[in-house]
Amino acid sequence: AEPRAKHFIDDLWRLHFTNLNAYLDGGKPALMLDFADPAPKVELSIWIDAPRARVFKALMDPKWLHAWVNNEWVETHKTIVEPRIGGAYVYGWKYEVEGRPVDGGPTKILELVENERLVTDWTDWRGDPNVPPQRIAWILKDENGGTRLTMIHDRFVRVVDISDYGGGWQYFLGAIKGVAEKGPG
């Protein structure tokens, strides 16, 4: 009776393998879920040795954005940033799931406060049009001469939909840190 039962099981395995990998690397599980949580989310943060304006640039400048979203998992095409509420915000990820092409990641800016906050939508990673969009919030705060960047991924339909986002977002926070501290390369 579970909607998207195949995806439910797939996401559980992804979560377990992400946590096992984190444990084997000598750390704690990447994400422990509370299946009773009515508003599941992934919330992670990282300290970056750069001022907020430079970290914000890593989120908003298409060249800098491309430098951290480009990875070995997906083919990245042109990143697009229209810096206004309602403007396009696109990683340019293109891949295939279950035989259908998917344009993954965000599509538009929902909130924007320069050097403080960026909120975007987030499409279902499998490209399922019946799954409502999620939300990604990037919050920047001054801390110890640098910037604390906090990422909150929320509005999941069910807890298990969080899947392997914990490990994935940890990877991308590290990539943003590298770009913000050293430039796009």
Task: Describe the protein.
A hairpin with a 2-residue loop joins strand 5 and strand 6. With 185 residues, the chain is an alpha+beta fold. Helix 2 packs across helix 4 and helix 3 packs across helix 4. Strands 1-10-9-8-7 form a five-stranded antiparallel sheet, with helices on one face. It contains four helices and ten strands; from the N terminus they run αβααβββββββββα.
Name the descriptors.
185 residues, alpha+beta, 5-stranded antiparallel β-sheet, globular
Low-confidence stretches: none
Which structural class matches the secondary elements? alpha+beta
- Strand line-up across the major sheet: 1-10-9-8-7
Helix content: 25-40%
Number of helical segments? 4
What layout of secondary structure does this protein have?
Elements (H helix, E strand, L loop, with lengths): L4 H20 L17 E7 L3 H9 L1 H8 L5 E2 L3 E2 L7 E2 L2 E5 L2 E5 L4 E5 L3 E6 L11 E10 L2 E9 L10 H18 L3
Antiparallel strand pairs: 1-10, 2-5, 3-4, 5-6, 7-8, 8-9, 9-10
Helix pairs in contact: 2-3, 2-4, 3-4
Quick summary:
The protein is α+β, with helices and mostly antiparallel strands and about 180 residues long.
